[in-house]
Amino acid sequence: MYLPIFENTPLTDLNTLRLPARAARYAEIHSAEQLIKLVQRGDLAGQRVVVLGGGSNVVLQGDLDAFVLHVRVPGRVLVDELDDAWIVRAGAGERWQDFVSWTVAQGWGGLENLSLIPGTVGAAPIQNIGAYGVEVADRFFSLEAVDLKSGHVLSFDKASCQFAYRDSLFKQPEASGRFVITSVSFRLPKAWQPVTGYADVARELALQQIDSPSAQDIERVVTAIRTRKLPDPALLPNAGSFFKNPVVSAEQFQRLLAQWPQLPHHPQQDGSVKLAAGWLIEQAGWKGQRLGPVGMYERQALVLVNHGGATGDDVLRLQRLVIEAVHSKFGVTLEREPVLLARV
């Protein structure tokens, strides 16, 4: 199977922040077999490997002296029907929103709260994407990935993925650049129940006078909310939510609540409390503010946008200032959500 390999390839159009960068070597991957062939031929030997999906969750800091593998594996299929669930698989290169809409249209609820999250199916478990009370880990069944050391196709179940808040095994140093996800399977429950605990979702359902929402209703509501709040990367380059919602101890939360009674928060099962990073950034004075070509979005302070001509260094400067401002005001340290792909 022939696989073209390109050199000095521009990546600006392949990341949603539209940051300038070039890859020393580049190839589009449309199947696991192509990856296996690369390993067998020794094309990846001794090279830094960077895996790129939809480019919606990365910050590119200059040219990459690396072999960039752009995963474009297609496909979506019902794998199995169990007594209590459907098992549905998608190729890692499938656009996430297209896959979500497809499952909902088939009557397989479970992913609708994750509507309109940018990126690809293969990137979803790496980041353990989540929104409005649902994370990928809640619906995950298994995935297949090619081990670039051995050239073997490996299967990972939920436990082996080591999911955590916006984290997984695949973000850890020992796995990053070693495993390339080629397909992901999800377990969608037949005894589906709507997840409407987040205020924005409940408010929108009430406005539309929907008392018993279907999965289609939730998908439509979440899409409407995100469309109002978040800029289209095609019109205003961005990487979605730029900071993770910080999780603090119950004790720290009580101290913060005493000073800011209106602080948005979500209690966690272990007793900790998740705070709204966007609210913290807004209170720290950065909503709608610019630093040269970059800024925090005027409608949602959690989103860092490129107003034109920004570099990865511009993004990291703004990141540092926002983190410092929030920490100075609240004593809470924000963490970047997108992965930094830096020159070496």
From TrEMBL:
GO terms for molecular function: UDP-N-acetylmuramate dehydrogenase activity. The keyword rRNA processing does not apply. It comes from Uliginosibacterium sediminicola. This is UDP-N-acetylenolpyruvoylglucosamine reductase. Cell wall formation. It catalyses: UDP-N-acetyl-alpha-D-muramate + NADP(+) = UDP-N-acetyl-3-O-(1-carboxyvinyl)-alpha-D-glucosamine + NADPH + H(+). Its main location: cytoplasm. It comes from the Bacteria. The active site is at R166, S241, E337. It is found in: Cytoplasm. The gene is murB. Belongs to the MurB family. Pathway: Cell wall biogenesis; peptidoglycan biosynthesis. Residues 19-191 form the FAD-binding PCMH-type domain.
